[in-house]
Amino acid sequence: MLLSEDDVALFARVSGDHNALHCSPDHARRTPFGRTVAHGVLAALGTLEERAPDGAGVTAVEVDFGNPVFPGVRYRSEALDAARSGSGHRLLDGDRACLTVRVRPGTSPDLDLLPVAPVRSASRLTIADLPPGTTVSGAYGPEGIDALRDRFPVASRLLGRTPLACLLWSSYLAGMCLPGENCLLGRVALRFFPVAVSRPATLSYTARVVHADHRFGLVSIAGEITADGAVVAQAEIEAMVRTPAPPATSAALATHLSPSTRLRGTSAAVVGGSRGLGAALSLALASQGCEVFVGHRGTLPQNLLDEADGLPGRLRSVPGDATDPRWSSELRARVEHEHGRLDFLVCSAAPPLRTLGLAVTDLERMDAFVTGSLRLVSAPMAGLLPLLEKGRGTCLVISSAALREPPRDWPHYVAAKSAVEGLVHWAARHHPGVGFLLTRPGMLWTEQTNSPSARETAGPVEPVAAQLVRRMLQPAPDGTVPHLIAGEAADPVGAGRV
């Protein structure tokens, strides 16, 4: 099963679900997914398109969502056992289930539906805004549904016109209304009732929060869809309400590293310096008087600029793709012209971290992740190490505690960080004019790892950034092996140790 960006755009237009996770690359890049994600209901239609049995009409549809589905990635579908009533199908990414969908055949409602203009902006509700009893209501009618039926004729024939519209409504409700922009859909269950309406009808709906789990950000929603007062469908929807990871703040940093002017007159380049630990490092260096060239994609976040306002140093925006040697070349010319040398290079960028295995279907994405991760270190090093050597500067590279305890679903991440550390060892031996530091922080609460479990166990970025910059305030390490910053000490790392 393969979905395209055009499929996502078509689904958004017909369903009215223009949630930014699906439709805004800039927004999606700032989430743990790193790119736009296909609508869950769209992925369910794609699964049914490949696996739907003969027949037309359903009395119930259930979809359980597990892992994200990305446009441009090929997935495998399989039939489930028939122990339960109806037919079931699973969509797989390697050996990981993305979703399961079950349909129960029968006589479904068949109405001539009138289109209704959807809301254009998604609600931005947090879990605190959604106590039980929270209710929304309105009218719904997908616009141009025939285009979607033409794209998925098998699934559309199986479901029938009205159940398909109700399934689209579930995506619209969760992604745009309740809970809205911060929604991650977990489950949709729809039960349909035969309805006879002789004229074109508009669907009316009411949806109410029946349970909210504030610890994990989960909501359960009960909904009812009617036409001319007759019940067409009843719905049960479960969703996670994402809580954005807190950005680094200068106030939190100051509790671990007092502002000073000890680095006044120095310069630093921070690759991946606009988010997460990289942003905290940018602020920490600026808090010591350093002029920090922040490497980032897109626009430098305004909140980061606001946090830097008033610090002894300052942040300078360097947008672009750090894997492209031209980015380092242009930055090198800029720094050389303004400062003559570079005192610090921090490599903190990494590609979006998604679950992978070691299945044959994972190999292409694994190769891309490892190559991309290494390039985010090798390209800046290739372009900027000569500037560091002018004044015996320091290069800090962010590795990971995952090398000590490799997570099951991150073989690509462990391989990438191992490759990065290998490169740092080589560079330390062959560029003795630069001091090299490695650090392997544990789980930090950033958008890269933002999940309910991370909120429970991950630490803030500011203490780690403060510790690293305290070490950078000391003389650059000597020797031909990198030093590992562990606790408050900088210990050498043997070349064979990972």
From TrEMBL:
Q: Where are the transmembrane segments?
A: none
Whether Transmembrane helix counts among this entry's keywords is: no
Question: Where does the source fall among the domains of life?
Answer: Bacteria
Keywords (A to Z) from UniProt: Oxidoreductase
**A single Pfam family, by name?**
adh_short
Record GO terms (molecular function)? enoyl-CoA hydratase activity; oxidoreductase activity, acting on NAD(P)H, oxygen as acceptor
Q: Which CDD domains match?
A: SDR_c
Q: Which residues form the MaoC-like domain?
A: 3-78
User: Which InterPro entries did the record assign?
Assistant: HotDog_dom_sf, MaoC-like_dom, NAD(P)-bd_dom_sf, Sc_DH/Rdtase_CS, SDR_fam
Question: Which pathway does the record list?
Answer: Lipid metabolism; fatty acid beta-oxidation
Any single GO BP term: fatty acid beta-oxidation
Family assignment from sequence similarity: Belongs to the enoyl-CoA hydratase/isomerase family. Belongs to the short-chain dehydrogenases/reductases (SDR) family.
What name does UniProt use for this protein? MaoC-like domain-containing protein
